[in-house]
Amino acid sequence: MWSLKKEKGVPIYISIIELILSYIKSGELLPGERLPSERKLAEFFNVNRSTVVHALDELVALGWIIRKQGSGTIVNEGKWGITTVPRTDWRHYLEQNAFAKVDPYLEQIEQLIHSSADDLLDVYTGELPLDLIPSFAFPPLTWKHFLEEEQQDDLGYLPLRESLSQDMQKEYDFTLPPESFLITSGAQQALFLILQVLLQPGDSVAIEDPSFLYALPIFQAAGIRLYGVKMDQEGICIDSLEKTIRQHRIKMVMVNPSFQNPTGKTMSMKRRKQLIELCQNYQIPILEDDVFAKLNFVSTEQVQPLKKLDPENVLYIGSLSKILGSTTKIGWLSAPASVNQQLAEARKMMDFSLSIFPQVLANLALTDNNFSKKITELRQEVEARGQAVFDLMSKMEEWEVARPKGGYYLWAKWKNGDLRQKDWALFLQEGLLLAPSFFFSESRDSIRINFSRVSSHNIVEFKEKLERITEKISLDNSSL
């Protein structure tokens, strides 16, 4: 569609204007339809971006297109001719559904997982395998017990909030009162509420690059602009972050400082303090995702939450889903009381009521006499699996890996540059399902492995599959 015919003696920006006008008048561009980005149009036309900007400015002045902050460039509905049969353009509505846009590679992974083929090895799925999830014996509970439970308010089940407060004190020698916790149905609901209440369409947010946040459609759906900031071995680069803050008027910084998803990196204490100081100077809040807190392989002194360093400026998200399974659907957000109350009010208005069942069960697990013992056993087993996968991959000269300090993700970088589409296809063909780096950033040279799903029973299978894939990629590259 976006093929430009360049005529001798006609300025290129004029040719672009005429092309877009022809599409509008012929109906190939519909009223309210979004045009590709300036960068994409420049690529399509093989011209400088400034040329595209000039053409679009002229079309805006003529009234044919409109630029909306956070929505891009769209065809002006007011300029549209009267059609013979008025009808709703449902295609236009559906094109705006950010939740329907699924990467083709991800679709293939999900299809293979649902096929349940015997030769598949799933190290893609972002949760523990069932055999590792701790089991707790709950006391007999009747239906009446739940109906009579009256200790839930807008912030959630009070005994659970008290247990979380006590756990924070025990783990980090840090007091967060029960009223500073808002219980949510998982970490993503906490994130969704923050986007709806504290940010507006068009606002800019800085995240780590790569980051799992890059893959979430809720930012696009909310009209939030994400700006990735590069990382080094100590975490997010402060100089680059400050430059991004200045250039893009960043409204919030979102980080996953401990056992980062997808890289597994852990931000150093020095870098944590620098991040806090920078955001204090610019008066920008920090959203800290700490869902892997219980799966640390190092002392808690090395992974002190940002929330402890700056309680008033940090929004803290935690979850039990990473250790008790995704169906637990229990997360929490710790923020200043005034913020939590606004978030709770917003949830009530959206009718996102929180069931008492998972909250009561989560509290029973947290207060179980064997909870600490079972989490310690889980941590030891996950660490052993991570060490085994690291040992295996560190011996493969084609891959660059770092020993994980917690969580259950290992990030492996292909040393010979970007992997091509046919290279990625080899993983699917071999039945080794993992997450490619382009799910989390613009890079195409790394893979994320959930090493908790590589046990002593399937590590040989994992090794053989990865070695075959590595050999095929290497041979193919050497023949170029």
UniProtKB/TrEMBL annotation:
InterPro entries: Aminotransferase_I/II_large, HTH_trans_reg/aminotransferase, PyrdxlP-dep_Trfase, PyrdxlP-dep_Trfase_major, PyrdxlP-dep_Trfase_small, Tscrpt_reg_HTH_GntR, WH-like_DNA-bd_sf, WH_DNA-bd_sf
One function term, GO molecular function aspect: pyridoxal phosphate binding
Top-level taxonomic group: Bacteria
TM regions (residue ranges): none
Endoplasmic reticulum listed as a keyword: no
Annotated ranges, domain HTH gntR-type: 10-78
Keyword Membrane: no
PROSITE patterns, A to Z: HTH_GNTR
Name of this chain's protein: GntR family transcriptional regulator
